[in-house]
Amino acid sequence: MSIKVENLTKYYGTQAAVDNISFEINTGEIVGFLGPNGAGKSTTMKMITTYLTPNAGKIYVNDLNTETESLNVRKTIGYLPEQNPLYLDMNVLDYLEFAAELESVPKENISKSISRMVDVCGLGDVKHKDIGELSKGFKQRVGLAQAMIHDPDVLILDEPTSGLDPNQIIEIRKLIRQLGKEKTLVLSTHILQEVEATCDRVLIINKGQIVADGTPDSLQEKFRGQIQISLTLKKDNIDRDVILKAVNSIRSIEKARISKEDDKSFHLILAVSKGEDVREDIFRKIVSMNHVILGLHQEETSLEDIFRQLTTK
Amino acid sequence: MKNILTIFRKELRSYFNSPVAYIVLIVFLIITGWFFTSSLFLGGVVTMRNVFDIIPFIFLFFIPAISMRTFSEEKKSGTIELLLTKPITDTDIVMGKFLAALTLTGIALAFTLIYVISLTFLGKIDTASIIGSYIGLLLMSGIYIGIGIFASSLTENQVVAFIISFLIVFALFLLNKVLIFLPTSLASVLEYISIDYHFGNIARGVIDSRNIIYYLSGITIFILLTKASLEKRKWL
What we know:
The structure holds two protein chains of two kinds.
Chain A: E1 3-12, E2 15-25, E3 30-34, H1 41-48, E4 56-61, E5 64-65, H2 70-76, E6 77-80, H3 92-102, H4 107-120, H5 136-148, E7 154-158, H6 166-180, E8 184-189, H7 192-198, E9 201-206, E10 209-214, H8 216-222, E11 227-234, H9 240-248, E12 253-261, E13 265-272, H10 279-288, E14 293-299, H11 303-311
Parallel strand pairs in A: 3-8, 3-9, 6-7, 7-8
Antiparallel strand pairs in A: 1-2, 1-4, 4-5, 9-10, 11-13, 11-14, 12-13
Helix pairs in contact in A: 3-4, 3-5
Chain B: H1 2-17, H2 19-42, H3 49-67, H4 69-77, H5 79-84, H6 90-111, H7 113-120, H8 127-154, H9 158-174, H10 184-193, H11 195-203, H12 209-235
């Protein structure tokens, strides 16, 4: 077990930023914390990296308690904080050397580990430049290089692709996936594609609580039960109660509601319980009542819908 | 110890990577140089007295200026989070920064040795008093730096840090000057707190353990306060 979090709670003032969450992350997993801004992702990461202390609950990193063995925990973790803070007046090599010394990389290995990180992160062309002169993408690579300079078992990356352009994002994701092969990796994001592209497992966090936990596929599977059908009917002499009752009587339709009503048409949203196709049943039912269907459309829940459902309650 | 040295080297390098160090060094040398030459050429006296009298006053501005960025800049740019999640203690960080600022101050003071050397060619100097003054000035700047670093750890705004540390330092500096207006019972206590009073003793060339203890405990108190201010993030 690489990271174990038990009943973690953190208050900012009276508001719980993280509210009694527990989870475990196995060695070698790539886990994505997904959630809207202010959901508690960064706060959780800050507690794992020992920057903040929980108000309640415990965190173990490689079986070391973050509060009582703080320094040893920090040795096993490589951390890229949100916004990727860097010393802009240092040049890349000096900065990596500084990071390596702080991580107590043995003196004889420092130059070797610096040149390894320069290779892995593709910093060869810019290594003599001041960090302040670099583009955002290169700064992000420097941040990653700094986090991994001591070859940590656990990598924690807080929004590693925020503020990058699409090409840079793809490059950084590739780098992250490559690094994730050997390490336990936790990253946070509010971008869904990121999770789908890089993670083995997703924890969706909202208002300080974990609202879903699973692989991207399994989450989709789990929420597939809620296929939605939107139905538009022509509005001639329709009694809304009759039509609602009729639609509700169709097998495996859980709930029907009228979403919109204008001069010419009725719009209904139907929630379907299982992964069955009920469009034909709906069609026959409406026709048998002598009404006219203007539109019938089935939507499968995507990860995006799940995310929105879970985080807007 | 190794970690203190790592922080120390980085801090010292960043002083000289920015214009701050050069500006304050030049200003410091211009002012002390003027007081030195005016007493020498206008007064015709072979003495460091005027220089040593003005330095505590220059330090009122000089030290808040060099220590204001130590933590506030790290807080503002977020690098403090990077630093505090590395496997080093908070004490290592505070000590590294403290010693770097002290070294910069020491460099400034070392330049004034030129005045002392030139005086030795012109007449007899009071060696004991000069050595005492340098020790006193270093100890005094230690307390000032402690205050400056503490003020810097309270805010992410460098200007606010400068003002806070200036006010504290100025209050301690002024204490000795207003004693005559106070009742004697209070005056003796406040006199002991005053930075200037202890400097006056050491500058005479008499190194008394009471004065040394005053300075060292003052430095310790502000280093501990800075540490506490860094740890505050954990409990709020």
